[in-house]
Amino acid sequence: ETPAIDVCKGLLGDKAKISIYDPQVTEDQIQRDLAMNKFDWDHPVHLQPMSPTTTKQVSVTWDAYEATKDAHGICIMTEWDEFKTLDYKKIYDSMQKPAFVFDGRNVVDSEKLREIGFIVYSIGKPLDGWLKDMPAVA
Predict the structure, then answer these.
(1) Residue 85 parent element (H or E)
(2) Do residues 105 and 80 make contact, with C-beta atoms less than 8 angstroms apart?
């Protein structure tokens, strides 16, 4: 029931390859959640479909640093304290550039991440200065 499922489905709909770090959920459950239609959670697990396309576009890892390696962006969807203490310089160095952080829970220090070099979007917080004047695209 997490909003992260909808975010991941949106990214998959845009043909993104995603790497998920969620040590609280099994890989099998993550794949099933992403393959299910919305509100089909009440069906028995053995009746829930597994999409080969989804499986190919999604990798699940048990290490936050591995999940971010060679990524274009990071989406933070949970309020775990762990996300406050990660080595974001190490993460930034392993990512493709420009490197983005989308903080959906306001758990990271946006200014510190910007100092490292990230382009940061945080719910309810100001955008990076150079983004403020960009025209909206319809």
Answers:
(1) helix 82-85
(2) no
Residue-level pLDDT at 93: 98
Report pTM: 0.78
Residue stretches of the chain with pLDDT short of 70: 1, 37-55, 128-138
Q: Which residues, other chains included, contact 34 with Cβ-Cβ below 8 Å and sequence gap of 6+?
A: 5, 8, 9, 12, 51, 54, 58
- pLDDT of 135 reads 65
Q: CA–CA separation, 99 vs 95, rounded Å? A: 6
Which amino acid is located at 120 in the chain?
V
How far is CA 68 from each of CA 29, 42, 112, rounded to the nearest angstrom? 21, 32, 18
